[in-house]
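fwd from M.: "can u put these together and see what the complex looks like"

so here's what she sent:
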Amino acid sequence: MTANMRTLLLFAGMALLIVLEGSTTFLGIFGGSWNSALFILTFGLLSAIMSLGVNMQWGYAGLFNVGVVGFVALGGLAPVLIATQPVSEVWTSAGAYRLLLALLVGAAIIGLAITLNHRLRGRGRVIALLVTLVAGFFIFRAIFDPAVEVIEAFQPATYSNIGGLGLPVLLAWPVGALFAAGAAWMIGKTALGLRSDYLAIATLGIAEIIVSVLKNEDWLARGVKLVHSIPRPVPREIDLQADPGFVDFAARFGTDPVTASTILVKLLYALLFLAVLLVLIFAMEMALKSPWGRMMRAIRDNEVAAEAMGKNVTGRHLQIFILGSAVCGLAGAMMVTMDSLHNPSTYNPLRFTFLIWVMVIVGGSGNNWGAMLGGLLISFLWVKVEVWGPAALNFLTSGLDPDSPLRQHLQDSAAHMRLLTMGLVLLLVLRFSPRGLIPEK
Amino acid sequence: MSRSSNPYQDDRGNKDRSITREGKGEVDSTRKSGSTRPAPGGPFLAAENMTGGYGAADILHDCTLTVEQGQIAVIVGPNGAGKSTAMKAVFGMLNLRGGHVKLDGEDISELTPQDRVARGMGFVPQTHNVFPSMSVEENLEMGAFIRTDDFKGTMEQVYDLFPILKEKRRQPAGELSGGQRQQVAVGRALMTRPKLLMLDEPTAGVSPIVMDELFDRIIEVARTGISILMVEQNARQALEIADRGYVLVQGANRYTDTGEALLADPEVRRTFLGG
Amino acid sequence: MDLLNAIVALLNFVVIPATAYGAQLALGALGVTLIYGILRFSNFAHGDTMAFGTAMVILFTWLFQSMGIHLGPLPTALLALPFGIAATAALVLGTDRAVYRFYRKQKAAPVILVIVSMGVMFVMNGVTRFIIGVGEIRFDDGARFVINAGEFKKSTGLAEGLAFRSTQALTIVTAILVVAALFWFLNRTRTGKSMRAYSDNEDLALLSGISPEKVVAVTWTISAALAVIAGTLYGLDKSFKAFNYFQLLLPIFASAIVGGLGSPLGAIAGGFVVAFSEVSITYAWKKVATYVLPESLAPDGLMQLLSTDYKFAVSFAILIIVLLFKPTGLFKGKSV
């Protein structure tokens, strides 16, 4: 069996799983609902894009990014800032404009600190840096705090934020990628620029910070108070259901308009996501075949030799780290767009960092198709185990007295089967198929 | 090492200090020893007809090394001649396809390196031969790890042999000079009271004065009845103190004679000693 | 008098909490740094090992409480601690046998072990939630305070109260004892020295007759014990919640790296550096400042540099600053 044949078969199997999920309930293993199948598909495609980003970093350059959740979250900010309507009431000189000024001042202070760090040496450097940063911090807060107060005081129940630009939401996708790329540039510059590579801990830390900023800075995107009804690139279900043409259309398929509308919307998203994913994979495959890709591989396979040949290893690493993070940011923006909801409390590192890693490893590090398959397959499992877990425990504990506390406890805990299963899948694949389902060529 | 044939060893070039630490061991710690057989007669150490290498290609070809009790044998030869490999083969760090290693009337070909240490072999690797963060005294203690009896006496003997170590016994070995570190390394190997001491280029990277000093100490060790097998870059000086010399070329014995005879051999002088 | 009040306030809100937190971080970081030193990878499952161990301690605590066994003024958890350690050590050693050992045999690259530890993290996380759920659990009992704020005010006549909770005192005392025992073990015993030797040079240790498998087993056991102690003390001091323990991974890693990975002394220093920075940067200094400064200079705001939600940002900033100036950490770690 050739490698291509194997890939094709695996993808066919994956497609079959999704079709089965949509068409049959076979002993309760599948949902038998096209809604559920398409949900898994869209969820899987989004995850596949994230795992594509991580795969670029890990698979092609050996960069260990454990801050995926941060980049996804940052990308998810873009739909709010781009597509929602501006809250013009807070765009006053005491409000949002002052806030912008504060951010500019903050950036200037950091710029000054970096310049000083480069120009000065020894004790002078430490003192100058300390003075700049401490004084700068207080100056920044002095401008920033009152502005935030003004913004957050405006209709806290609906707004308390600066709003967005009111632009088309699709524009938010590249912008989300840009946000993530910007953060990645800063992290990479710092962590890869140290004498040793400290990227892992740096990404772990910055991701926590990004998520806590999104949770707590209400002026930015209302924090945990959520932003609802972010504009969408596809029609809304309610509008479809109200459209007589659509109702007729649904009736011709023999379905009720509610189901038909949710399915159609999900289908549109799935197509949109699939298009983005395929464009990304195509671009990546092209890049890998180009001289740039060959150089990346040369660096990974023998960094010392590549460095001796005059290749700028750190520079290349920084490049690919930014690109990979941008892809994660793109996925984040797409996810928030689909949910039409910005909810930073869902950004859990287990779900958005470590699960993505499971996808990459299971799919096959260094292989884009592998990353895609891993994304789809693990998403499928992630969703389905939640259903299977209680069912399995129900079956296993059927011998126990229905009122026994042990049975109660086990059934209550079934929800946690998910993490356990994901861990086991990762460990089993690593052990028995360390190159993943679709190994790198 | 990235992109090796073993997928578990593929780190994809990752060098992230915050998650991994370099310097993993190379010796297979999970291998189990086979049995030994009595093999009386012959020289004290007889590593005969050794053939083998690390991978598919052989590095050693029918190579033979012998040492008599209390004698110094030196292996010399050009770069890439398989000198260190031959010594590692004697120590069991190489899979042999042919030949055997006998020590003190016993065939130990099937033993792992760690079990050969217990049988009386001491080995001083060329590099990474001390525990850098541990004090000199702790290094010696670790050398005596397999001993269950009191090793204070042996430690005193090592200190007598290398007085500078006694002075610096509280200092971490990693902070010592190159020559002193070699002394720690030799001292550590002596702590098991080996019957055979194997030294892989003990004078690599030390100054000529220190080198002479080290050679003097090695002669002293040999006088206590310990056999010595040594690989040396500084062929001329090494052969001067050698009872027996081996000139290896491409993993095979080219010349074998007493050190004196080899030094006198015009062919050896011309080809290997630079005139 | 004002100065005394300021000192008491400082002790009460910064020094005591930070010391207790620092001790907890230090114990956690010691476990991470030992695994890093000996097995050469950062164990992402450490936070969840802490969670699992603490869950075990809680179960045993409940068992003892239901049997009517109490330790008087001390929390019952202290009695449950050895059992929790035993259970966790068994789990960790079992994991090593079933999972990690294979990769050692393969001479796997350390970064592969990091990924493996992610898998173990998922499993342990799931197991812990399975056993004890995701809710917040308080399991401290016994005396609440060593020094009670109200009584302190009465007896000293100061306006500021000093509260020294027994869990904080317990944390500090336990941490000191554990750290002393660990250092004695590493520097004075044959097994401890063999661990250091193995960390320094695996091959040479092997050739000296040190058994790698034994060193690894001892390391896992100690690291599990440290994790359970750290987790239990943290849980007694604050509360137990599985997810919070997972999140402790960042400050613990930061402590280990700030101190210098692989250096036990560094792990302790790192723990306190991180804890004191976190607490003092997220503390509202208004109270202390009002006592110390003349009335005219009294601050209007809270004088809180950062909201407590950003405490992780502090660990991270400290980490970057230290790495910029001392790439191997405060105490020369094994990283370069």
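replying to her w this: Chain C has one domain: 2-325.
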